[in-house]
Structures are given as structure tokens and as C-alpha cells.
Specification:
By secondary structure, this protein is an alpha/beta fold. Helix content is 46%, strand content 14%. It contains 38 helices and 26 strands. The strands form five sheets. An eight-stranded mixed β-sheet has the order 21-22-20-23-24-19-25-26, with helices on both faces. A seven-stranded parallel β-sheet has the order 10-11-9-12-17-8-18, with helices on both faces. Helix 33 links the parallel strand 21 and strand 22. The longest helix has 38 residues. The N and C termini lie far apart (73 Å).
């Protein structure tokens, strides 16, 4: 391909995806040369068969449009002549190219043999942080005019413009990056790699903010800009109004929160609990006062529930505070090491032999991303999941074992991060990281804000739970043995066979591994036979909680084997690491060894597991508030057996954690139960929390004018139906409720039920005119949350992470459907343990724990709907217990000045649509009593 190459950019609309049975209904083509469109063709085609309703809704092409259109055989010659020997381009070329080639063959034309380029893969590589690679989303992001998505003529022209824009993006990259991509381009679909190779500009220099490290080009570390000058806190309302307007509305309740935090931090420095209703400006309410107090000598540590909220806080909220105050506020986002790329490991992964096509595609994406990222945070890639084998090889581990020497060490992203933490005034982290690493933070009396504080106790308890995963340990030891012995003659033993000393060292390691594998298997067998019985048709994960006698027996059986593992694993890992380091340091003698990069990741994983083993204190756990259990992948898989110690209360641990901070502030939109903070205070380990240290800020929203709550009285109780029948009901109800022009979020309490309902909805007509997003099915929570935010006709099925912390104002979200009252699963070990502990103290577990948790989550689910003063929407509950039980009515009373309208689903739907369409709701509808 060269500057003179002619491209035939095609798009097809078809009756379906099967090229042997489906037919083309529209052909679009834009002929382009050197970025200029020379000619276009748009042709409706009579498929001589029905066009499915879903296709009609998607494309806007109806049978009447095709009645007078020619058959494909009548235009096949014209299409073949138009394409000629041009390079064919399509957005998903492996659909359009073979479909068109097959149609041409059926019409008596020769099949296509043209070179072909795919703009989907080009976009995935060259636009690595895009949330979606649909053509309409890409053209919107790049500012390309795209008037009629899903019409072949418009799509073909837009794809042609996209191709040349992507070429420009590629040529703007530094030449070393272009060349590295072109070397790996052979793995791209069809001739897409040749397109990149032909586009390389040999004289594209590195910009001032770039540096070359080995074969990679990365962004120069910018460092944090130090604070300059001083500012004075706006102490009175007039000063706050002058600062906030016109960007923000002055709210008296928010001003009260700011003053309370600022005064307390300078004075008595007592713990505070603040419930700030939706719209009260919670984040600004704590960030602004601390902006005048935080410094590298006295950090503000903000912890949130999820990494998604972390990013939002840094990229949105802190940016606003900087603009308001004029302060620099050097800040750093802190996550666990596995979120970051290890440059040395990634560079080594590029040398791996026999990498599959998807691995190479991901590597190319990362090569481009390295020219953009300042942090190395892999979450920026917005991938559907991070379970690809490559990630296990390239994620940072946070330790220095087998750290690869050379140019990458100084440019390492984790090294940068640690330096920035020291210089930051504000550190934004998450509950799980803080619980495990609070002692590693640089300050000794930093300020602390715990945002979404209702999750803090449970997250801390989870962080201090323990697992002895015998199955995983045995598998990893087996993998280590494979690295030593090798496959296809590429093991560590083959590399060092010229060294008698190293060969002997590895032979000893092999014997130790085999001994450990046998010991672990014997222990698993003993624990299995004592607690499980094989069955004929095992399916699904199995968990068994041990009673007091079972725990005592288990401790006795674990004592000696656990001591043996703690004694034998460290020297084994040290020995293999020593051999690998020697090979690495003497590559001129032993040769380059790409397997060392994979071995480094495995040794790090084994070392982390060994470290956890060393801290596994059976005597200490016997005294802790834990529930002990055994788990299996399925009832008959004894080699998957693991032991778990699940902590169900963390008050004492939290108090120890809080002692490292000054004036901790606990904030959230839903912290109270019955307008009191007692439940939260007890979870956090406070015996008594004075009311003077609490504050409740009402939401400024007018809920009666902005929202309507509906209860489907004829909805079934999930416990009364088989799971499949319940999924049938939910799919049918959701399809009816969401059959409108409004964005809908459906909240579930089970990922498994999301999967079942999604499968059913995908086969229904609604899938033809609504984009269906499902957590754990079509992508991760983070990815589909971002996709939903830019959608227009989207239906999202989500679980836990969607109950809170995601903002979809105005038209982004107008309907929330709650499938079940959000109680915890009573079979979860920690839930059972809390029940037993409360019952032992003479308390009612349901009233003291399960119901308060469910009420908080119910309030959170409603809170997704109204996020600004302009929002308007409906909240639909498909669980009859909201109106038929005392606890359901208690939940209903927790809603902000609203009562549910209780109606059968068939009557509810037109009223919900009437509300959404701003028409009048008749008053004869009944309210829940």
C-alpha cells in the first residue's frame, strides 16, 4: 500500500449474520485515494425474503423501501467493477468481506481476493483508552460527521473518514513507536498490518514530554507541581458565595458542613459523621475546607469505596476545587500494585515466542497507550476484563524480587508513584488499600476522610479475613515445576545445563516441589474425607461452615502441615530465584530467556502466597471474630479445597487504623438508619458517638415534583418460583417497562440472575432497539458504566456496584428498576457469623443487622435516580414485600418524602410512561400503606 493506493470502503446492512442464509439489503461504498473520497455508491437491495423487525428498527430500512429495489444479482457486476482491485476497508472487515464475497459468488461473480483493512482493530490499537469501538461512538469522539448510523451509505463514508483519521493518529506517534507497531502488525486482521507499515513516517521525532526507554516510548514523568503562595479559607457565607458562583450554587447546608470540618480540624479534632443527602455537594463539602489545611507535611487522605470513585474524585472533584481556590493541591491516586504496568516485564513480553493474536493486539494497544499515560494505571485502558494471560505477566507486584535490571528500572511507574506520594498534599485511595497499607503511608497524623463510609467496616473486615488456598498453592507449584523442566526444550534446566552447580540446585528444587505437592494433596484429602461426600452430579461451588468442634479438629490437623509449608517454601523460592537471577545477569553466557519474565510473575505470586502463609496465625484467629469454612470448586473436586477464615466484625481493627490519623471524618449520602448514626458507629468500633459530632444534611431536591415510586403488586416473591421461572418474569417485566425512549438501570442482588435475564432479553424484540449492557456479561462494571453514560437507548443490568457511586444526571438515567429488596444473602459465611454473634448477645440479628443494611442499600438504589435539580424519573420495585411486610413498609418510609404507588404491572406501565413523558398521573392510583 502506498499514497496511490485506492481504498473501497464498504458497509453492508443485512437481514442477519449468517452469510449462507441471510441476504444484503443495502450496500454502501466510498472509493477513496490519499484521503479524498472519489466516488460513492448507495444501493438498496431486495433480499427476496422478510426483513426481521429487529433489523428494521436498527437500520430504519423497511420492506416498503426494498420492494422496488433490484435483486443483488442485478447489481453484482456493478459492485464488482466498482471495487476492482482496490483495498477493501470495513468496520469489522471479517463480517463485511466474506459476506459480500459469498453474495458475489452466488450471483456468478468471482469471489473477492482483494487486500483488506479492518478499522475496528486499528481503532483498538491507536485509540487505546476508548470506552467503545462502535462506529457511531468513534465518529462522535473524533468529531466525524455521521448523519445516519446503521445505514450503509453513511457508515461507509464515516468509515473512510475514520480510516484516514486513524492514519493521522498513527503518523503523529514517535517514529520508534510506529516502527514497533508495524513489526507486530502481522498479527492484525488480514492486511491491516501492511496498512500501518506503509504509513510509517521515518522522521517523526519525540516531543519534549516523551522519552525512549529501550524499544518503548513513554511519557516523561511530570512530577507534582508544588504549592505556591497561601490562601485564606472563606469563613463567612459572603466569601463562600463569591468563591462558588457562578460555577456552583451556594447551599447553606454545604456551607455548614465546610465550616464544621474546618473548625474541627483546627480545634478539637474529634471524629465526625456527616450524612449529606444527594445534591448537597458532599465531595466539595469536605475537599474545600481541607484544601486550606492539607500539605505534603500534613496530608489529607481520602478513601473511597471503589477505584472508579477514586478516579472520579481526582479527575472531576479535585479539579473543581483547584479552579475555585487557585491552589495547586498536588494530589496522587493510590491503588494496589497490580493496577500498574511493569515496564520491564512488558518489554520482555514483546519477545515471547508463539504469542497468540489477541495477546499481540493487546500489546500493540499498550505500546500506543504508553505514549499517553502519565501513571501506568492499567484501568485507563477500559478493557472488558483484565483476565487475559498477558496481564499476569505484566502487572506490577510491588516487590523487588527478580526486578529486571536495565533502562526500565528508573522509569518504573511504581517508583514514580512512591515519589509522588511523598510530595502530594492529597492522597486518594480506596478502603481495601487503606485497610491493608495504612501503616505504609508517609504521614503519622494525616487528616482522613472516609467517603462512602457505610462500606468501610465490611471492606476492612474482608481485608483482614484469611484464606489458605491449598488448591491454588499446589497448582502454582506445578507451574513452577513446568518452568524448571520446560516444554519444547525451553525450561530453566535446559538453559543452565552447562553449569553443574545450577543444574544440581534445580534438581534439588524439583524434589522439594514434588514433596510439597504430595503433602498438600494428602492434607486436602484428609480435610475432604472428614467434611464432604462425593455425589453423582456435582455442579457449582461448595462452601461448608465449621462448628466449634470442627474448627478445633481443623486447627489440630493444620498445625504441623502449616508449619512445614512455612518452613519449606521460603528456601525453595529463594533457590529458584537465585538460579533465575544468575541466568538473567549472565545472558551473554546462558542466552536471552523470555521465560524469565513469566517466571518472575509466578515467583512473585508464590512469594505473596508464602508471605500470607507466614502471617497465618491459627491461635490468633481462634480468638478473633471469624467464621471458619472449607470451599470446593465442586462437590467432588477435592484438589480445589481451600480453608477460609472470614472476619465478620472489624471494629477493633478500625479503631487501631484510625489511631494513625487526625480528626477522621466519615461521610456518605446514606449513613443513618431511622435518622440515627448508631448502626454505623457500632460497625466502626465506637462505643458511644456524641450527637454533637454528627450532622445530617437534607437533599435540596424537590422529590415530589421530580420522582415517582411504583410498586408492582402482582410481582412474584422470588422464593415462590424456580429460578428459571423467576428469570422469565423479570425479563418480561423489564422488557415492558423499558420499552420507551428513556435510559433504564435495572438493579439486581445476584450476578447469576443478571446472566439469566440478559440471555432472555437478548432474544426479545427490545434487543433490536435498546443497547443491552449486563455486568459480568457484556463487560466489567466500570466499562459498562462508562458506556451507559454516553448511550441514548440503553438498558443496563447491574448489581452491587451500581447501587451507589455512579452519577447519571438528566436524560442519562430516567428509570430505575429494583428487582428485589436488597437483603444480604443469608447463606454467606460472614452473614451467618454476624447472625450467630448477635444472637449470642441476645439481640435479634434481623432487626440489628440485616434490616439496617437492607434499608441503607434500598436508599442507595433510589439515590441513583435523582442526581441534580433538573432530573426527573421513576423508581419501580418488582418485589411485593415492599407493601406486604412490616420491614418492607419500613423501607418505604426511608424514601425522601415519597410514597410508592401500588399497582399491578399492567396498570403501572402506562402511568410510569405518563410520568416520564410529563403527562398527568391520575390520582386514583393507590399508595402503599
Amino acid at each position: 500500500m502506498s499514497g496511490d493506493t485506492v481504498y473501497a470502503v464498504i458497509d453492508l446492512e443485512t437481514t442477519g449474520t449468517e452469510r449462507d442464509s441471510d441476504r444484503i439489503i443495502q450496500f454502501g461504498c466510498a472509493v477513496m485515494q490519499d484521503g479524498h473520497i472519489l466516488s460513492t455508491m448507495s444501493q438498496m437491495i431486495n433480499p427476496d425474503r422478510p426483513v426481521p423487525q429487529a433489523i428494521q428498527r436498527l437500520t430504519g430500512i423497511h420492506p416498503a423501501d426494498l420492494t422496488a429495489a433490484p435483486y443483488f444479482a442485478d447489481v453484482a457486476g456493478t459492485i464488482r467493477d466498482l471495487i476492482g482491485d482496490a483495498v477493501i476497508v470495513a468496520h469489522n472487515v471479517n463480517f463485511d468481506y466474506p459476506f459480500l464475497s459469498n453474495a458475489l459468488t452466488l450471483a456468478g461473480q468471482p469471489p473477492l481476493t482483494n487486500a483488506a483493512v479492518d478499522t475496528v482493530e486499528l481503532s483498538q490499537v491507536l485509540l487505546p483508552t476508548q470506552a467503545s469501538y462502535r462506529l457511531s461512538d468513534l465518529t462522535a469522539a473524533l468529531g466525524i460527521t455521521h448523519d445516519h448510523p446503521h445505514r450503509a451509505d453513511s457508515d461507509a463514508i464515516s468509515t473512510a473518514k475514520l480510516l484516514w483519521r486513524l492514519r493521522a493518529v498513527f503518523q503523529a506517534l514517535p517514529t520508534p513507536t510506529q516502527k514497533l507497531l508495524s513489526r507486530h502488525g502481522t498479527f492484525l486482521l488480514r492486511d491491516t498490518g501492511d496498512f500501518l507499515k506503509a504509513a510509517v513516517k521515518p522522521d517523526q521525532p519525540l516531543t519534549a514530554d516523551m522519552q525512549q526507554v529501550g524499544d518503548l516510548v513513554i511519557r516523561q514523568p511530570q512530577g507534582l507541581e508544588p504549592e505556591v503562595g497561601q490562601a485564606v479559607y472563606p469563613a463567612d457565607d459572603a466569601a463562600k458565595k463569591a468563591m462558588l458562583r457562578p460555577q456552583f450554587r451556594f447551599r447553606q447546608v454545604q456551607a455548614h458542613m465546610m465550616d464544621m470540618i474546618h473548625t474541627n480540624a483546627l480545634g478539637e479534632r474529634r471524629p465526625l459523621m456527616i450524612e449529606a443527602g444527594t445534591g448537597a455537594g458532599k465531595s466539595l463539602g469536605y475537599l474545600l475546607p481541607y484544601a486550606y489545611l492539607a500539605s505534603p507535611a500534613h496530608h489529607l487522605v481520602v478513601t473511597t469505596h471503589t477505584t472508579l470513585l477514586q478516579t472520579q474524585l481526582v479527575n472531576k472533584e479535585l479539579k473543581s476545587v483547584r479552579e475555585l481556590t487557585g491552589l495547586t493541591l498536588p494530589a496522587v491516586l493510590l491503588k494496589s500494585p497490580r493496577h500498574y504496568l511493569d515496564l520491564a516485564k512488558f518489554a520482555a513480553s514483546l519477545q515471547l515466542p508463539r504469542a497468540n493474536r489477541l495477546t499481540r493486539l493487546l500489546q500493540m494497544k499498550i505500546i500506543v497507550w504508553l505514549t499517553q499515560t502519565a501513571t501506568g494505571d492499567l484501568d485507563e485502558l477500559q478493557l472488558t476484563n483484565y483476565h487475559a494471560p498477558l496481564f499476569a505477566r505484566i502487572q506490577a507486584t510491588g516487590d523487588n524480587r527478580l526486578a529486571m535490571p536495565g533502562p526500565y528500572a528508573d522509569a518504573d511507574f511504581l517508583v514514580r508513584l512512591k515519589n509522588e506520594v511523598q510530595r502530594a498534599a492529597i492522597i486518594v485511595t480506596n478502603h481495601a488499600y487503606l485497610a491493608r497499607h495504612f501503616q505504609e503511608l508517609p504521614g503519622t497524623s494525616d487528616y482522613l476522610v472516609v467517603d462512602e463510609a457505610q462500606h468501610f467496616a465490611d471492606t476492612t473486615a474482608e481485608a483482614f479475613s484469611r484464606t489458605l488456598d491449598l488448591g491454588k498453592l499446589r497448582r502454582r507449584l506445578g507451574q513452577l515445576l513446568t518452568f524448571i523442566e520446560g516444554q519444547h526444550g525451553e525450561g530453566l534446566s535446559q538453559l543452565v545445563q552447562s553449569s553443574a552447580a545450577l543444574s544440581y540446585q534445580l534438581s534439588q528444587a524439583r524434589a522439594q516441589i514434588e514433596t510439597l505437592e504430595n503433602q498438600i494433596e494428602q492434607l486436602q484429602d484428609k480435610l475432604y474425607r472428614r467434611n464432604f461426600t462425593p455425589i453423582s452430579h456435582p455442579s457449582g461451588r461448595v462452601a461448608q461452615t465449621l462448628d466449634e468442634a470442627g474448627v478445633s479438629w481443623l486447627n489440630g490437623e493444620l498445625d504441623a502441615p502449616l508449619a512445614g509449608l512455612k518452613r519449606q517454601l521460603p528456601p525453595l523460592l529463594a533457590s529458584v530465584t537465585s538460579v533465575a537471577e544468575t541466568v538473567q545477569q549472565q545472558q551473554s553466557h546462558f542466552g536471552a530467556a523470555p521465560l524469565l519474565e513469566g517466571l518472575a510473575g509466578l515467583l512473585s505470586a508464590l512469594q505473596r502466597q508464602t508471605d500470607r502463609l507466614s502471617h497465618l496465625d491459627l491461635q490468633g484467629l481462634a480468638k478473633a471474630q471469624v467464621v471458619v469454612g472449607l470451599t470446593l470448586a465442586n462437590q467432588n473436586d477435592r484438589l480445589s479445597l481451600a480453608v477460609t477464615w472470614t472476619r465478620f466484625a472489624a471494629g477493633a481493627i478500625i479503631q487501631e487504623e484510625l489511631s494513625h490519623f487526625t480528626a477522621p471524618v466519615f461521610v456518605g449520602a446514606t449513613l443513618t438508619v431511622g435518622r440515627k448514626f448508631d448502626y454505623l458507629a457500632g460497625q466502626l468500633g465506637y462505643q458511644d458517638f456524641p450527637e454533637a459530632q454528627t450532622l445530617r444534611l437534607r437533599s435540596p431536591f424537590h422529590y415530589k415534583q421530580q420522582a415517582q415510586v411504583f410498586l408492582a403488586t402482582d410481582a412474584p416473591n422470588a422464593h415462590d418460583l424456580p429460578a428459571s421461572a423467576y428469570a422469565d418474569y423479570l425479563a418480561g417485566a423489564i422488557a415492558q417497562l423499558a420499552d420507551n425512549q428513556h435510559q433504564t438501570l435495572v438493579l439486581f442482588t445476584s450476578l447469576a440472575m443478571i446472566d439469566e435475564v440478559y440471555r432472555r432479553l437478548a432474544r426479545m424484540p427490545i434487543a433490536g432497539h435498546k443497547e443491552l449492557l449486563a455486568q459480568g456479561v457484556t463487560g466489567t462494571a466500570s466499562r459498562i458504566a462508562k458506556r451507559f453514560a454516553v448511550g441514548e437507548q440503553t438498558l443496563l443490568l447491574g448489581a452491587a456496584s451500581f447501587f451507589e457511586g455512579v452519577d447519571y444526571p438528566d436524560k442519562q438515567l430516567e428509570q430505575v428498576i429494583l428487582t428485589r429488596l436488597p437483603f444480604d444473602n443469608p447463606d454467606r459465611p460472614d452473614v451467618r457469623a454476624r447472625e450467630q454473634a448477635l444472637a449470642a448477645r441476645g439481640e435479634d440479628p434481623f432487626a440489628a443487622d440485616m434490616l439496617p443494611r437492607a434499608i441503607l442499600r434500598f436508599r442507595q438504589s433510589f439515590g441513583r435516580l435523582i442526581r441534580t435539580e433538573r432530573d426527573r424519573g421513576v423508581f419501580v420495585v418488582l418485589d411485593p414485600r415492599l407493601g406486604t411486610t412490616a420491614y418492607g413498609r419500613q423501607m418505604a418510609k426511608s424514601l425522601p418524602n415519597l410514597k410508592p404507588m401500588s399497582l399491578p404491572l399492567a396498570d403501572l406501565i402506562p402511568l410510569a410512561n405518563a410520568w416520564l413523558d410529563h403527562t398527568i398521573i391520575k390520582k386514583e392510583a393507590h399508595h402503599a400503606q
